[in-house]
Amino acid sequence: MYALAALPGPYLPWSAGAMRPAGLVTVCNDIVLNGRRRIVELGSGVSTVLLARLLTQRPPPDGFLMAAVEHDAHWAGWVGEQLDREGTRSNVTIVQAPLMPHPRTEPGLRWYDEAALTDGLREALRGDPIDLLVVDGPPAYAAGHGLARYPALPVLADRLAPGGTVVLDDVERPGEQEILRRWEAETGLGFERRAERGGVAVARVPADCSGTGHG
Ligand SMILES: C[S@@+](CC[C@H](N)C(=O)[O-])C[C@H]1O[C@@H](n2cnc3c(N)ncnc32)[C@H](O)[C@@H]1O
Questions:
Q1: pTM, to two decimals
Q2: Whose CA is nearest to atom 3 of ligand 1?
Q3: Does 10 map to a domain?
Q4: Which domain holds residue 95?
């Protein structure tokens, strides 16, 4: 929270659904230290508002584009209004994609409407590859929903930039741990899991690789 005090603004309704401050600092550090400029977040909220503050406060020299994917239209509206109020919306797109059955999810689980998501991302990032992917949605806390976020890498791996970063939140949960095991086996990425990082695991795409080769 002390580090995030450098991103001041109106009060935000931080709740248990939001990334923890240490996790968000990990993401902010990657943006600042590695000059991230094509950022995608699955699951919007307080994190979107704070990342937009950071990117507006110290934009990369050649600018940035950020897309936050959100399934809940009401919540997407709240996040968008907050960005408008703070004057940080100009390079941030909220991509609305409802949840629906997806071939990569377990039976009974839903993921984002893939067509809405990929069309929205293509437009928001103007076709550029993603150099920072933050996976914090869809909601996965309910019993039986532990693998709800699994499709993120199978769907987006080929859009990751060489040298890019992938962040998964809530990795203390069994579902996210199983997702990490699957992602590592399927893509060859190695995720760092550090307790002091506020529940996020982080992987770097090799610099000499286009996408992760996930089929
Ligand atoms: C894990 S949350 C995403 C949180 C977001 N990345 C953050 O750190 O603020 C997953 C979903 O829960 C919903 N959500 C997030 N924050 C919320 C809040 N404070 N109140 C209601 N719904 C919220 C949104 O639909 C979001 O896509």
A1: 0.96
A2: 43
A3: no
A4: 19-204
